[in-house]
Design a protein that fits this description.
13 helices; mainly alpha
Length: about 325
């Protein structure tokens, strides 16, 4: 029973940690399916985490924080879209510029406004997206096996985590069951054919970047107002890059990308529980090593287990209309 209880807690932590990863990976997936490489995912979720945390701290409303988080992410997404689509600039350089700029600007602004060393004030429960208890969770809590599964794993998550569960089938349906999704995938594979059919390549790619910006806005907001209680410096901790790795591991498909995010989330949750454990002949596992586990796993997977990778053929290539 102790093993089962530990497993339940581990799965519960996995779902929480994987929430921003899933949202960010879906954002990158939609962008790349339309032919835009979005390295700036890290900067967008960090910016939205800061905007959401700062707004919630000032107004006391997590909903206003969510709006601010989405708007800040959308602004950066549109900036990247303008450079990549309208100006046909280098998409990698544009994304990295966003990451670097936000990494410096967010804690600087936080320190300027709140005087707390680059972070926002701690949020109370009313200013956060707190855990939601589903019906009968208390009643079933003491029921063997079923109680922990329902009360600890299914119940007790914040609203954005539940929305993330719906986001995966929603994005899959949009990509594979709608005319817009068909055109979106086509513009990432053969934009000239889409243009020949009289459909605007630029408009489709801008629309994809709007979706990516909204998803990143939710991801950053849940970091500071759902999983955390305010913004702290570098709180994204490379999740934008991990999401990109998960998207590649999932081969630009929603369900495999979800599974990759859950794998990364599981390893991240596991490293937290491994801290302080002593192994025979080795002793206590260094904290620095356990923190490295998700990133080590990323390198191992991408280097040896992904197999042949076939990205959308027009991904990262600016489209120039033939005259």
């Amino acid at each position: 029973m102790e093993f089962f209880a530990d497993l339940v807690l581990l799965v519960d932590s996995t779902l929480r940690i994987a929430t921003p990863l899933i949202l960010t990976a879906l954002a990158g997936l939609v962008a790349e399916r339309a032919g835009i490489v979005d390295i700036g995912l890290e900067g967008k979720i960090l910016a939205s985490a800061f905007a959401a945390g700062a707004t919630a701290a000032v107004t006391g409303s997590p909903w206003l924080g969510l709006i601010a988080g989405i708007m800040s992410s959308l602004a950066l997404s549109m900036l990247h879209a303008y450079v990549s689509i309208s100006q046909r600039g280098n998409q990698i350089v544009s994304g990295m510029a966003i990451n670097i700029a936000v990494a410096g600007a967010a804690p600087t602004l936080a320190n300027f406004w709140f005087k707390k060393g680059g972070q926002t004030p701690l949020l109370n429960d009313e200013s956060r997206f707190s855990a939601l208890e589903l019906p009968f969770s208390d009643f079933l809590a003491d029921t063997p096996f079923v109680g922990p599964l329902y009360s600890d794993i299914i119940s007790g998550h914040n609203l954005i985590t539940y929305l993330t569960v719906l986001a995966v089938p929603a994005v899959a349906w949009m990509l594979y069951r709608t005319r817009f999704g068909l055109r979106l995938r086509a513009v990432g594979e053969n934009p000239s054919a889409v243009d020949t059919a009289g459909i605007s390549v630029s408009a489709l790619r801008y629309q994809a970047m709007i979706i990516a910006g909204i998803l990143c806005g939710f991801a950053g907001t849940v970091l500071s107002t759902g999983l955390g209680a305010g913004f702290i410096r570098d709180m994204s901790a490379g999740k934008g890059y991990l999401a990109l790795a998960a998207m590649i591991f999932g081969k630009w498909k929603p369900v495999p990308t979800l599974l990759a995010c859950l794998l990364f989330g599981f390893v991240d949750a596991l490293q937290g529980r491994l801290q302080g454990i002593e192994l025979p002949l080795i002793g206590e596992i260094p904290v620095q090593f356990t923190i490295m586990l998700p990133y080590i796993l990323t390198v191992i997977i991408l280097a040896g287990f992904v197999g042949r990778i076939q990205a959308p053929r027009a991904s990262g290539i600016p489209y120039e209309k033939d005259h």
